[in-house]
Amino acid sequence: MNKVSFVPHSPQSLSSVGLVSMKVAVIGLGYLGATTAVALSLVGHDLIGIDPDQAKVDALRAGRVPFFEPGLDEALAQAQSTGRLAIQAEHTCTSADVDVFLLCVGTPQSRSGMGADLRYLESSIDDLAPYLRADAIVVGKSTVPVGTAEALKGRLATLVAFEPYLSWNPEFLREGTALKDTLTPDRIVIGVDEPHSEALLRQLYQPMADLDIPIVKVDSKTAELVKVAANSFLATKISFINAMAEISEQVGADAVLLAEAIGYDERIGNKFLKTGIGFGGGCLPKDIRAFQACAADLGLEQSVSFLAQVEDINMRRRTRVLDIAREELGDLTNRRVAMLGAAFKPETDDIRDSPAMAVAELLWAAGAHVVVHDPKAVDNVRRMYPNLTVADTLEEAVAHAELVVVGTEWRDYALADSAVLGHLAANKLVIDGRNVLPYRQWQANGWKVIALGRNLEHNPVEVLV
Ligand SMILES: NC(=O)c1ccc[n+]([C@@H]2O[C@H](COP(=O)([O-])OP(=O)(O)OC[C@H]3O[C@@H](n4cnc5c(N)ncnc54)[C@H](O)[C@@H]3O)[C@@H](O)[C@H]2O)c1
User: Fold this and answer.
1) Ligand 1 nearest atom to the CA of residue 142, by list position
2) Distance from residue 185's CA to the centre of ligand 1 (Å)
3) pTM reported for the whole predicted model
């Protein structure tokens, strides 16, 4: 470990003067790992990023982030210019110098059930074991079922000739603001069961602690639970307001205004109370499923049985769009539908478990000719949904459409010229699945606007992004 004096010239102005630089290996360079590796090298640590995906390694080495994340390209270039970020496809002898191994590999839903597939974590443990020094620590950042740290530590102990250190440090970054969330998180949770890991993790995060970012020290099991509890709470909040939307639609009330009204109560708060086609992405859906599977394994399925309803509500919002489309157009066979948005949320190209893509698939399965547009995610759509047509521009998507559906709340859609789009569409009908359109302007241009959970007739209030 070397003393360095590095003040990154990034907007975050993390001051790392006097930081004791550590040698850190980030294992897995996806959305989480690539951001973590870049951020930690920017604050002054010496990073090795390892991922077996050669295409990802080649891209990162060439200074290209292999996914869209605002600001990360520039930050990668800055990190590479410091000479403190090496990217490679496998461990080399330099791994023997590593003080902290951060596990950032995927934990997708298992193919055979709702539980998490931990095979990538297991193989990353097997890969690093030959290089692990007795005083180095292994730290999991991936989202996992409670008990994973203990199991991985047991696995590692069979591969090395000493008692290994293994702890958990769950990650809360959000795609779209990942770099900021990593450099200046709301809090850092370190789940440690002995003082050595705690000391090294506090040293790793010294630049953040210097900014008074809270470091919450817990045991490793609590740390594993913190992350799934946080995601379960967020998913529940979204499904709660979407349940209110279901009821509002039935009785002619307006769930967007309801959300505003209850959100002023600071015990409730107005964040994550947006009605629409629900949550998705590479984390929330699989994490609440894995939590249910984990609880069932513990004989505690009742403790989180509400999560099954949270997911049911979420899925019903997707089919609600199909129902509205049928109510409006009748048989959907060969009807042209423009799906505006593919990413699970704006400012990312991530389409894993995306509500917009789920709706697109439902419409396609009902016979519609679905044309998808997204400002950043079209390459992923082309790769993963060869059955759907992809448009490179918003205008191309809307041209000749009999129905337009807003599936992702990109600003481009909120700011789109509804008069121009009205001339291009075959039928001026739009379902706003994200409540982002300035609907009065759209109506003034002749569009019929159906906004999920809203009663536009009786509540003429615009909700603008
Ligand atoms: N994406 C997010 O916003 C986010 C936020 C918080 C937590 N997480 C959690 O972080 C973990 C990773 O998520 P992600 O979105 O970055 O996934 P991802 O699929 O984008 O990246 C995972 C990476 O791990 C690599 N990998 C697989 N096996 C490996 C091995 N043996 N050694 C090294 N690398 C290996 C893959 O090639 C891939 O690049 C998950 O547990 C996720 O739940 C993600």
Assistant:
1) 41
2) 19
3) 0.94
Residue 204 sits in the same domain as residue 260: no
The CATH number linked to 26 is 3.40.50.720
Q: Are 139 and 160 in contact (CB under 8 A)?
A: no
Token pair belonging to 217:
């020290």
3-state secondary structure 410-458: CHHHHCCCHHHHHHHCCCCEEEECCCCCCHHHHHHCCCEEEECCCCCCC
User: What residue type is 288 in one-letter code?
Assistant: I
Q: What is the position in ligand 1's atom list of the atom closest to the CA of 107?
A: 41
In a domain, 440, yes or no: yes
Q: 93 an active-site residue?
A: no
Range 421-450 average pLDDT: 97
Q: 211 and 233, same structural domain?
A: no
Contact between 386 and 313 under an 8 Å Cβ cutoff? The reply is no
137, containing H or E segment: strand 137-140
Check whether 462 has a pLDDT greater than 80.
no
Return the closest-CA partner of residue 460 out of 264, 251, 242, 254. 254
